[in-house]
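Sequence of Energy-coupling factor transport system ATP-binding protein (Trichococcus patagoniensis).
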Amino acid sequence: MSELRIEKLHFAYDKATPVIKGIDLVLDDRTTAIIGQNGSGKTTFVKLLKGLLRPYSGRILLDGADIATMTVAQIAKKIGLVFQNPDDQIFKQTVLDEVMVGPLNIGQSLDQARSSSRAALEQVQLADVEQVNPYDLNLAQRKMVAVASILAMDTPVVIFDEPTMGQDVAGKAIIKKVIEDLHEEGKAVFCILHDMDFAAAVFERVVVFSQGQLLLEGDAREVFSKKELLQQAYLDQPQAMKIAQVLGIPGNLLTVEEVEAALKEGVNQ
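Predicted 3D structure, token representation.
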């Protein structure tokens, strides 16, 4: 399992206006949701992890190696990033060709790239559209194409930026299963999210960003119980937790399923 160790990380597009302000954090084998309001520094942070931006001070260590010593191509073999907007990634004429771009660029043979890309499309339930132009698909489907593109690269670290954007219940279920499968394969999985309910239901650990700083991090149940600190970052608790609190159910419940189980147990007592 890969580990990312972030030490005293600072970054600014304009040095007069810092965006990342002294982040110290270890991202390990726990599935981790990174939450925070727009402008809190989340997307900039993951671009730094991916090597698309370089910090002006501090270090990012991938399994002990400073990524500042690596090229973007070398980092690409280790860290896969699914962008928030799939249209920032897509440029080929067919879905299959699009998904094969990443695998080919990191050195997979043509046969390997085709095989891994088809397996990835199967994983996101798009196997039947491999010869379709990606721009003939809707936004949610294009997002899945972007996810498949990264899955096919088989990187030890996978980062998602707003994977549930535009997804319905079925789409979110697919993303949830993808994250669970990656975790079971021993990959490190990190995800930027605005969807508190999805974060609570899927991720073991939650990291809260506020104004470029690390406000809070820990077990998902513990973090989401900190109502006042979340409000400080202009974030809300998951709906299930709020419902449980209104009903007076103890335990900081995270999901609707937990609330239903608690109510059922109460009825049966």
